Amino acid sequence: MIRAMLQQLGKILIEKKLTIAFAESATAGRLCSEFSLIENAGSFLKGGIVCYDACIKEELLKVKPSLIKKYTPESMEVTKAIAEGLRKLIPADLHIGITGLTCPGGSETADKPVGTMFIYAAYDQGMLFSRQMHFTGEREDIVYSTVVKCAELLNQHLAHL
Questions:
Q1: What are the boundaries of each domain within the chain?
Q2: What's the whole-model pTM score?
Q3: CA 154 to CA 91: how far, in whole Å?
Q4: C-alpha–C-alpha distance, residues 95 and 87, integer Å
Q5: Could you tell me which NCBIfam families the record lists for this protein (predicted)?
Q6: How far apart are CA 94 and CA 21, in angstroms?
Q7: Euclidean distance between CA atoms 122 and 130, whole angstroms
Q8: C-alpha–C-alpha distance, residues 119 and 129, integer Å
Q9: Closest to 98 (Cα-Cα) out of 17, 31, 13
Q10: Is the CB of residue 3 less than 8 Å from the CB of residue 34?
């Protein structure tokens, strides 16, 4: 399922002459890795940054520590900030940021349990889409479900560009 969806997404990116880059926290590069396996990935994949630790978000992607302190590293506000920070580092048409909770111990609360994931997709100078989702299962299941959902959302939104 994911393979066919990603191949279709690759075709759309090539047809529309769009490029893409990723800033991944909770998925730790899995999304970028999956994109690298798409046929002709070199035509659209610019690269990715794994920003698992807050210090990478702050130092490399220039996310303000006050934003992380106020909203936590696993929040839509920080997810948007890592996508915006990525825009300054990697030239691309689409900049995707992902954060979330794949295991206990982060900023987990009753309102934000393990399995809560955030995706922010920046396009041009604005937002293509943003989503907060919740998945269940083990860490691998949550990461895989996030990759699938991101691919689905990209397919839906890019079809209308």
A1: 2-104+116-129+150-158
A2: 0.96
A3: 18
A4: 6
A5: PncC_domain (TIGR00199)
A6: 6
A7: 9
A8: 8
A9: 31
A10: no
- Compute the residue count for the chain: 161
The one-character DSSP state at 43 is G
Selected from 3.80.30.20, 3.90.950.20, 3.40.50.1000, 2.30.30.240, the CATH number assigned to the domain covering 2-104+116-129+150-158 reads 3.90.950.20
Residue pLDDT tens, the chain, 161 long: 789 999 999 999 999 999 999 999 999 999 999 999 999 999 999 999 999 999 999 999 999 999 999 999 999 999 999 999 999 999 999 999 999 999 998 898 989 999 999 999 999 878 999 999 999 999 999 999 999 999 999 999 999 88
H helix count then E strand count, the chain:
6, 5
Backbone phi, psi, residue 98, to 5°: -135, 130
Neighbours of 93 (CB within 10 A): 19
Distances (CA, A) of 49 to 77, 97, 116, 160: 18, 10, 21, 27
Beta-bridged to residue 56, according to DSSP, are none
Distances from the Cα of 127 to the Cα of 4, 137, 141, 153, angstroms:
26, 29, 27, 13
Q: Is 36 left (phi over 0), alpha (psi -120 to 50) or beta?
A: alpha
